[in-house]
UniProtKB/TrEMBL annotation:
PROSITE patterns: P_GLUCOSE_ISOMERASE_2, P_GLUCOSE_ISOMERASE_3. It comes from Enorma massiliensis. InterPro entries: G6P_Isomerase, Phosphoglucose_isomerase_CS, SIS_dom_sf, SIS_PGI_2. It is an enzyme of class 5 (isomerase). This is Glucose-6-phosphate isomerase.
Length: 420
């Protein structure tokens, strides 16, 4: 299960103040729980079953199986909301299915050459994931990789090795029909960054060997909780409320800190979710991430001692899983680290986390999202918990959490420069 520990923030956001804020804004929670008509074209994720029903899961698992029978390497071509969700899970759980290679998220020739090198000697299937099929990074990578497959396998066999996940009726679907590629429908009423629990990400996860049924079961559990719990007992609403109380008090940056590097891609998913959902109309809390303990030696100084614009949310996994234990043996070399003899890195890392939280909590509000363990079920819970919290938080802030008008300005200039 997930639990929001607020005790290290209570000297900045007093519990009684938070409870009255939540009571005062209970109508916002009720609207989010029901889903508002004005966002009907963006709320397909709110009911997990709409895009991750048992039928869809069966279909996704069958396609994943077919892909794995043809390939040991699956190239996921997508950017932002078409990339970060499945990549989070692959990085967090290191499943043992097909290897995933990431493309469509860069315009760097060096990086794309590296991706092509990674394919040599492997059997490859590619998946171009694009809601609009206008985005430059996936569009250009798709052409590059399509041509690579045609050169390597011939046109007919290449077509068997191309999957596209796109909007029904889009030019990407037309292209699939014309060329005989496998077409997977992109959830029509879900914006990219909210698609973690749809085929957009469930297919790459399943190909990678993730138990997507367990992941979706975790999300369903979280949906049941968050869509029924009243304001005082709703942890995602408490988080959304605390963020907005802190915004009102001048806090402008939220740092998502974690002591498991496996959360690196999850933190990118989280950054996109909050940056695009809240950063608009001159408002919003800037989401940043700190991969600890490494960042304690770079960002840590500012966090502890710098301008008071930051609050922090830690991700903490309570129970160790497989691979989470490594005991440091003693040594007869006088290396000055004798105090570590026989200690497990799991405990050393925990000591670093608890000390950091205690030190930071003296200077800034610190929340901790506690996960019992790190597995598929908890990844599903995390996705739903943060998506729901983000919806509620955007509503409290008074912005539309589902559009991203700010990204158009650079695109216009870039497309002009490229002669589109
Ligand atoms: O949240 C969103 O909708 C966006 O950030 C998209 O995820 C991102 O721009 C990628 O879009 P597309 O899948 O259309 O290439």
């Amino acid at each position: 299960m997930l639990k929001l520990n607020r005790s290290f923030a209570s000297s900045f956001v007093a519990e009684d103040e938070l409870v009255s804020y939540m009571d005062e804004h209970a109508d916002v929670l009720a609207r989010c729980q029901a889903g508002e008509d004005r966002y009907a074209d963006s709320l397909g994720w709110l009911s997990v079953d709409e895009w991750a029903s048992d039928t869809i899961l069966d279909r996704t698992c069958a396609l994943a199986e077919q892909i794995r029978s043809m390939a040991d390497t699956f190239v996921v071509i997508g950017v932002g909301g078409s990339n970060n969700g499945s990549r989070s899970v692959q990085a967090a759980l290191a499943p043992e299915g097909a290897r995933l290679v990431w493309a469509g998220n860069t315009l760097s020739a060096w990086e794309l050459n590296r991706v092509l090198d990674e394919l040599e000697g492997h059997d490859v299937v590619i998946d171009c994931i694009a809601k609009n099929f206008e985005t430059l990074e996936p569009g250009s990578s798709f052409r590059l990789l399509r041509q690579y497959l045609v050169e390597r396998y011939g046109r007919e066999e290449a077509a068997r090795r191309i999957v596209c996940t796109g909007t029904i009726g889009s030019p990407l679907e037309d292209l699939c029909r014309a060329e005989g590629y496998t077409f997977v429908p992109f959830a029509t009423n879900v914006g990219g960054r909210y698609t973690a629990l749809t085929e957009v990400h469930l297919l790459p996860m399943a190909v990678a060997g993730v138990d997507i049924r367990a992941l979706v079961a975790g999300a369903r559990t979280m949906e049941r909780l968050l869509r029924t719990a009243p304001a005082g007992e709703n942890s995602a609403f408490a988080y959304a409320s605390a963020r907005n109380m802190l915004w009102d008090r001048g806090y402008r940056v939220e740092l998502l800190s974690f002591f498991e590097p496996r959360f690196r891609w999850f933190s990118k998913w989280w950054e996109q979710l909050f940056a695009e959902s809240e950063g608009k109309d001159g408002r919003g809390i800037f989401p940043a991430a700190a991969e600890c303990s490494e960042e304690l030696h770079s960002l840590g100084q500012f966090v502890q001692d710098g301008t008071h614009i930051l609050f922090e949310t830690f991700l903490d996994v309570l129970e160790p899983g497989a691979g989470d234990s490594l005991v440091l043996g003693g040594t007869d070399v006088a290396d000055a680290f004798g105090y570590l003899d026989g200690k497990d890195f799991w405990d050393i890392n925990k000591a670093s986390f608890t000390a950091t939280r205690e030190a930071h909590a003296g200077m800034l509000p610190c929340f901790t999202l506690e996960l019992d363990c790190l597995d598929e079920e908890h990844m599903g819970m995390l996705f739903y918990w943060f998506a729901f919290a983000c919806y509620a938080s955007g509503e409290l802030l008074g912005v539309n959490p589902f559009d991203q008008p700010g990204v158009e300005a650079y695109k216009r200039l870039m497309f002009d420069a490229l002669g589109k």
